[in-house]
Design a protein that fits this description.
With 419 residues, the chain is of the alpha/beta class. Helix 3 runs parallel beside helix 5 (97-112) and helix 8 (169-177) packs antiparallel against helix 9 (190-214). The longest helix is centred in the middle third of the chain and has 25 residues, at 190-214. It is built from 15 helices and 13 strands. It is globular. It binds 5-hydroxymethyl-3,4-dihydroxypiperidine. 5-hydroxymethyl-3,4-dihydroxypiperidine is lined by residues 25, 28, 168, 225, 268, 326, 366, 373.
Amino acid sequence: MNTGGMQKDRGTGFPPSFLWGVAVASYQVEGGNLWSDWWEWERTPGHIKDASRNTIGCDFWNRYPYYLDLAKEIGLNAFRLSIEWGRVNPEKDRWSDEALTRYREIILACRERGMEPMVTLWHFTVPQWVSREGGWTNPETVDWFLAYVDKTVEALGDNVRFWITLNEPTIVLSSGYKTGVWPPGRKKDIVGFRQSRKNLIFCHCETFSRIKKKTPEAQVGIAVNITYNEPYRPWFPPDRALVFLANIQGDYAFLKRMQSHLDFIGLNYYFHNRLAFVFQPDTSFSAVKNENKIVSDFGWEVYPAGIAKVSWDLWQRFRKPIYITENGVADANMNDKLRSDFIRQHLLYLSRSIAQGVDVRGYFYWSLMDNFEWAEGFSYRSGLYAMDYEKQIAVPRQSSVETYRRIIAEHRISHGNLK
Ligand code: IFM
């Protein structure tokens, strides 16, 4: 087996207080988020594959006890969810106590089922009124966001020990301001990109300080999506230079700007890229040359060694505890060998990192059930449970649910669950 260049060892266990969870995000599972920018975005033809059904989606907003029961059945001790800014603050200066009360109920419902809630304050969407005022490019958005943070932390803070300020900000920056495939749909808007980046970094740091001031015992981090980049030809300096550039321009640079304001790093790991130098200025001289022996429904190569590589790299650079806040694979097949192997292999590599001294404290599979996958709409199916949206039921993908349940129960990767 490819150990990704790391030393081989026998470690296959997880620390006693390890968090075993799944992750969901408000806009993707709740349904009915009509105050958010994505709601308008979705309704413009061409933006989303198969958007027509996203009125209630999984209807987590109303049916959260059903889903939390399913999560509990897997034996999880943690559950990652997010708060929808547009629900809490649907119009400028209008706040919804009703929404905050519901979020409080959801968080308590996690606790009642023995699951530690990990709560994300911003997972991609802004309220429509914020978007009309220029979204993240507008410096006032910082004040609006922080007012939302204050209200939310005031209402929920006594029951939340783990906060994530922002989810994958660099993905939103590039999709919203470089490629324009996500709201606000700007292409090559370098000025907008830079302003938004600056405002997001400030929001993270200030949110961290405010939460810590109010509840010093809370743990506050950020979730970043890091691709494991490696040179296609390790002996070829231009390929190595591409990897170096990709790393310094991406999330490592972002994290560096906020490292004094982080209790932990949330790592969302999905895949790797083997980068090759090509003489094509329009592709930034870079091409991805993956082997693609095993790929997800979306063509993402399954590469479990990468989770260990990135965790190791993050640990070496920042020395902060790491939670794997997302890791998952899109596979619509009900006979889901791909997903169960994916879970086993990633956890095996993770256990090896832990044995080598990397401080990894939790793993959250993305996602509990199939849900709304942004521009891909409902076609992306990564759930441990398959959604039947018409009937509003979630059907277990047996092999994956069983695999994850067993690993959690044994708290280690044993021979049995490696088969
Ligand atoms: O569904 C997304 C999630 O919102 C952010 N991280 C990646 C997931 C899968 O693409």
